[in-house]
Amino acid sequence: MSGIVTVYATFAGRAEAERIGRQMVEERLAACVNILGDAHSIYRWQGQIETATETAALFKTAADRAEPLTARIITLHSYDYPAVTVWPISTSTPSYEAWVLEQCR
């Protein structure tokens, strides 16, 4: 298992993803954030089936920074129950892992 993880989160729109993503990099909680294109979501909310366009983002971070990163995203997020999950990375190139770890220190 490597010493880095990816944190996946969805946001109400690109502006929110960019604002929070930039702040996480500035605070060194993430080395990088990839803001992906529109995600079309279908979900149940308050007893109704809803659809929405959201923006997904992938945050690259050190494994020991995942908990503070997810807590910070949740604090800044506009949703009542934001989707923020940690994905383990089993292997990575040594140089990439070293870069992520350096950026999160």
From TrEMBL:
<comment type="similarity">
    <text>Belongs to the CutA family.</text>
</comment>
<dbReference type="InterPro" id="IPR004323">
    <property type="entry name" value="Ion_tolerance_CutA"/>
</dbReference>
<dbReference type="GO" id="GO:0010038">
    <property type="term" value="P:response to metal ion"/>
</dbReference>
<dbReference type="Pfam" id="PF03091">
    <property type="entry name" value="CutA1"/>
</dbReference>
<dbReference type="InterPro" id="IPR011322">
    <property type="entry name" value="N-reg_PII-like_a/b"/>
</dbReference>
<protein>
    <submittedName>
        <fullName>Divalent-cation tolerance protein CutA</fullName>
    </submittedName>
</protein>
<dbReference type="InterPro" id="IPR015867">
    <property type="entry name" value="N-reg_PII/ATP_PRibTrfase_C"/>
</dbReference>
<dbReference type="GO" id="GO:0005507">
    <property type="term" value="F:copper ion binding"/>
</dbReference>
